[in-house]
Amino acid sequence: MRSNWIIRGDRAKGKVRVWSPAKVNLYLKVLRRLPTGYHEIQSLMVPITLADEVELSVTTPADGDVEIYCNDSTIPTGRDNLVYKAVLAFGKSGHSVDSLAISIDKKIPAGAGLGGGSSNAAAVLKGLDYLYGLDLTRDELCAMGLEVGADVPFFFMEQACLAEGIGEILTPLGISRDVWLLIGFPGFSIPTKRVYDALKLELTNPKAQVNMPLSLEGEDQQGRGEWYLINDLETPVFVWYPQLKEFCKKLKTLGALEAKMTGSGSSIFGVFRERAVAVTAMSEIRKRLPEWKLFLARPVWQSVDESWRNANGSDRGEGFSR
After folding, report:
1. d(C-alpha 127, C-alpha 106), whole Å
2. Active site residues
3. What domains, with CATH codes, occur in the chain?
4. Alpha carbon distance 321, 296 (integer Å)
5. What is the per-residue pLDDT across 196-229, written as a single tens digit (0 to 9) for each?
């Protein structure tokens, strides 16, 4: 697979650096619980310019040892890290792996519902594909990624997608909007299993008919406009953590077109048409809620969109956190 997110690489020197962005769920509908324990969903997922960078280096001796380094001390660097599991999935697929040093330059907060761990795992699989010159297909990489986690395949698409099934059935969407995202992370995580279990969906529920704004235009959702978005997982989470609901309200008061929780939380994002309005909102929130970590980012709608390469630090979600 030719990835647009390879920052730089040198096969002769055994090194590659991969861009590893966060994601937001602009729309998330939970349809039913499956016998496997997973849930069938329908979601509009988009990568954003808040991103980590993952560097792989082949080391010696070639005994298959994997060392993981991260600038965030809260991130596990052993076998529990999805990056390590990605290396194992690569090996299980019949590809030999030399000893590796993997360095994660972390900017995506952990446990925030932004998909940082899944993105890092996908970055490692892309990096291994590059280092060994395998030219694996996207489907092959997605199959390996699914062994690691349901969200991992999405990061091989490198663009906005409709995600169905448990998140592994991905349809690229030809959409684009010139908007900014103001993302707030309250500093705590919410266990994903707890959130889904609280929905109490039945195994026998028929598949729902969902009218998702695939084009983000066209049908006016009951007069509420193109940015009428949904996240079913907010229902239990906002009961447990009313401050998250209040944060959504605050974003709208400060000019957001819409504000939602992403994934199973705990991060909240607001959609803004103008960067200046988003920056003003960020400044106001920082004064009133200093415990929240804030990021300004943009969606990466299409795989050919390489604007992130030229974005300055603030536009790439860097330098705007508390």
Report:
1. 17
2. 23, 151
3. 6-171 (3.30.230.10), 173-310 (3.30.70.890)
4. 8
5. 999 977 554 555 555 555 445 444 444 445 667 8
